[in-house]
């Protein structure tokens, strides 16, 4: 399966997840795939785009780590998958698919914060939403100084 | 490490969500929302206290927002008490309040949590006298003692209290609709809510009218608390002069370096646990982006050297320097990734992250013709070569600033490498195992981390060499070996890294990790 399709399918799984564990697992996969994809974009992109893709990678990694450390989630997930390689001609399409994944993560974590959550879940999901939000804005160019801690 | 602005921005986001969530509420939900609003009002009151305390005579100090803060403080306290009363009257049975925050209250609770932490940060900027009186630790341009910062805090607090008024007003309207279904007489509660709403709106009007601004959480608030963010961190985002931006970028790099100096690395037992590996990843990513931006600058300097008909050696040295800086950027990114899955509680390692963004931003705004550049900027045009230097002297000065930055970051990498070794000897670096438990990180894992920084140092040495050659053309050695390192004659540059010569040989000569791009 090609990378763009994989990104779109993962976004769809996140959007479609109905059970809580399915959502958390698909969101973790989404952040993990976003991490590897952003990393590949860092390697494939021009020097002008390095900072943007590196920040995107960091946001995706933060989201993944947040979910890895979330209550009840720690043991469920393995290490990073295989590295991804992207050619220069694929950068734009990959970015578009990654943006769609970031949108799905952002939407679902935003909605999840309206659900009944205990304090630990609230913190984990709030941080995951923040990471998804940063990832989305890095890709969509809607960012200001405040996004840079 | 979060600053006041980070937390306030996050709280703002939750508050916006909260205002959209006040629909038809159950009795328990309405009570829960009222309790969270009370906590929000309490936190706002504390922030006003932090701003007002320690100003010797707030009625005569000439700042209307300080007087407004003092004058409205009691009314904010009253809002809090009335909200608690309303919540208690509304849901007298504690069992009605679920352990879980109901939907409408959840974003409010999140906002309160973030603002509570933000307020705690403010306290770090206050000293407490023997008689319990509090005062800003220092006057000056940044921190709680700064009048402009105080004004912005008052303005923000006014906006938050305004939101308390809006949400409480919405609450009063909503519970009038299903009032018959409630098990208590709601009339007194509705009156209380309406009083709170009116009172909070009044406070909002008074506070924001005196501050005369509609503030977004600005750069000033990123400098709070001053005691943590460093007293010398300048506000220079308005600076547009390229050489000034480059000089400030090099200064930021020094601040990153300086933040790594405290020793020992091993955390004290009294230090609260603080996972610093993510901060190290952040520092490394920022260093990578700073070097990437530096590469763009140096590439343009090379073009400018041609335009100025400078010595060909200078142009070639700059071109090779730009290539080496790109390699160094990737090496820093790889070093950041090498922290993946590792855990350490060495608190000093978290400190550099506070300063890391500065160098990225200054170098980025120097490299690109966009005064609002951020790493998210897409397709920002690179600044024309002619803007980087008017003559060979300014070109050399710009090159020297970049060299300073690179040399300082090399020192940072060496310090981190040394810290990694010390922490590993103390078994203070852990990793998460496949079964989810943590244990001391194995030697090979730490060796990879150490090697990633060795790779950074190796590539930095190459970049430093070409930048030195370019800034001192009379001594350029284009055929010099790429890893001439510290043995290479030191040119008369403004900055030399004091630690560059006190490193153990293995810090400079350790076998480099295989670079991710070259693997």
Secondary-structure blueprint of this entry?
The complex is a heterodimer of chains A (149) and B (519).
Chain A: H1 3-16, H2 20-44, H3 50-68, H4 91-112, H5 119-140
Chain B: H1 4-20, H2 27-52, H3 64-90, H4 106-123, E1 126-128, E2 134-136, H5 147-176, H6 187-211, H7 226-229, H8 242-258, H9 277-307, H10 312-337, E3 342-344, H11 352-367, H12 392-425, E4 429-432, E5 438-440, H13 443-471, H14 505-509
Antiparallel strand pairs in B: 1-2, 3-4, 4-5
Helix pairs in contact in B: 1-4, 1-5, 2-3, 2-4, 2-5, 3-5, 3-6, 5-6, 8-11, 8-12, 9-10, 9-11, 9-12, 10-13, 12-13
Explain what the structure shows:
The complex is a heterodimer of chains A (149) and B (519). Chain A contains five helices and no strands. Chain A has helices at residues 3-16, 20-44, 50-68, 91-112, 119-140. In chain A, helix 1 runs antiparallel to helix 2 and helix 3 packs antiparallel against helix 5. The longest helix of chain A is centred in the N-terminal third of the chain and has 25 residues, at 20-44. Residues 142-149 of chain A have low confidence and may be disordered. Chain B is mainly α. Chain B has 14 helices and five strands. Chain B has helices spanning 4-20, 27-52, 64-90, 106-123, 147-176, 187-211, 226-229, 242-258, 277-307, 312-337, 352-367, 392-425, 443-471, 505-509; strands at residues 126-128, 134-136, 342-344, 429-432, 438-440. In chain B, the strands form two sheets. Chain B has a three-stranded antiparallel sheet with strand order 3-4-5. Chain B has a two-stranded antiparallel ribbon with strand order 1-2. In chain B, a hairpin with a 5-residue loop joins strand 4 (429-432) and strand 5. Chains A and B meet through helix 2, helix 3 and helix 5 of A and helix 1, helix 4, helix 9, helix 10 and helix 11 of B.
């Amino acid at each position: 399966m090609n990378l763009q399709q994989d990104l779109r399918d993962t976004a769809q799984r996140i959007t479609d997840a109905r059970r809580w564990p399915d959502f958390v697992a698909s969101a973790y996969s989404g952040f993990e795939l976003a991490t590897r994809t952003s990393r590949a974009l860092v390697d494939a992109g021009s020097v002008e785009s390095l900072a943007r893709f590196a920040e995107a990678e960091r946001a995706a990694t933060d989201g993944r780590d947040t979910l890895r450390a979330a209550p009840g989630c720690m043991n469920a997930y393995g290490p990073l998958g295989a590295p991804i390689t992207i050619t220069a001609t694929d950068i734009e399409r990959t970015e578009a698919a990654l943006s769609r994944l970031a949108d799905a993560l952002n939407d679902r974590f935003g909605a999840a914060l309206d659900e009944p959550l205990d304090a630990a879940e609230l913190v984990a999901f709030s941080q995951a939403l923040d990471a998804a939000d940063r990832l989305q804005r890095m890709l969509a160019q809607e960012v200001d100084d405040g996004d840079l801690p | 490490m979060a600053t006041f602005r980070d937390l306030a921005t996050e709280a703002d986001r939750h508050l916006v969500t909260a205002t959209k969530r006040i629909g038809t509420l159950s009795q328990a939900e309405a009570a829960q929302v009222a309790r969270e609003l009370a906590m929000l009002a309490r936190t706002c009151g504390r922030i006003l206290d932090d701003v007002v305390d320690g100003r010797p005579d707030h009625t005569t100090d000439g700042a209307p927002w300080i007087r407004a803060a003092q004058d409205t403080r009691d009314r904010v306290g009253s809002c809090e008490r009335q909200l608690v009363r309303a919540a208690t009257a509304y849901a007298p049975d504690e069992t009605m309040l679920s352990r879980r925050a109901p939907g409408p209250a959840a974003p409010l609770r999140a906002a309160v949590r973030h603002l509570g932490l933000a307020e705690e940060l403010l306290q770090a900027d206050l000293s407490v006298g023997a008689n319990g009186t509090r005062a800003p630790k220092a006057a000056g341009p940044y921190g709680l003692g700064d009048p402009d910062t105080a004004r912005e805090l008052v303005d923000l607090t006014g906006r938050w209290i305004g939101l308390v008024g809006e949400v409480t007003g919405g609450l009063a309207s909503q519970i009038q609709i299903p009032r018959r279904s409630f098990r208590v007489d709601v009339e007194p509660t509705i009156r209380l809510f309406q009083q709170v709403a009116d009172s909070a709106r009044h406070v909002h009007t008074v506070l924001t009218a005196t501050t005369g601004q509609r503030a977004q959480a600005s750069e000033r608030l990123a400098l709070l608390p001053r005691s943590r963010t460093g007293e010398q961190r300048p506000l220079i985002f308005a600076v547009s002069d390229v050489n000034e931006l480059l000089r400030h970028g090099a200064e930021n790099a020094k601040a990153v370096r300086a933040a790594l100096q405290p020793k020992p690395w091993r955390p004290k037992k009294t230090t609260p646990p603080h996972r610093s590996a993510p901060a190290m990843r952040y520092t490394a990513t920022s260093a990578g982006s700073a070097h990437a931006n530096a590469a763009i600058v140096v590439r343009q300097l090379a073009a400018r050297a041609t335009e100025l008909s400078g010595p060909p050696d200078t142009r070639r040295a700059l071109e090779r320097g730009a290539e080496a800086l790109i390699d160094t950027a990737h090496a820093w990114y790889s070093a950041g990734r090498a922290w993946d899955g590792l855990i350490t509680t060495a608190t000093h390692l978290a400190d550099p992250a506070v300063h890391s963004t500065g160098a990225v931003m200054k170098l980025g705004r120097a490299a690109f013709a966009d005064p609002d550049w951020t790493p998210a900027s897409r397709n920002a045009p690179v600044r024309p070569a002619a803007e980087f230097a008017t003559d060979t002297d300014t070109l050399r000065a710009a090159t020297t600033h970049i060299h300073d930055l690179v040399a300082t970051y090399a020192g940072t990498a060496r310090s981190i490498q040394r810290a990694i070794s010390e922490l590993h000897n103390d078994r203070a670096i852990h990793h998460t195992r496949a079964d989810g438990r943590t244990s001391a990180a194995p030697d090979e894992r730490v060796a990879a981390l150490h090697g990633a920084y060795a790779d950074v140092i190796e590539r930095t040495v190459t970049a430093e060499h070409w930048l030195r050659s370019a800034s001192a053309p009379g001594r350029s050695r284009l055929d010099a070996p790429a890893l001439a390192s510290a043995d290479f004659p030191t040119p008369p540059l403004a900055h030399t890294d004091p630690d560059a010569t006190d490193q153990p040989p293995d810090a400079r000569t350790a076998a480099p990790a295989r670079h991710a791009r070259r693997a």
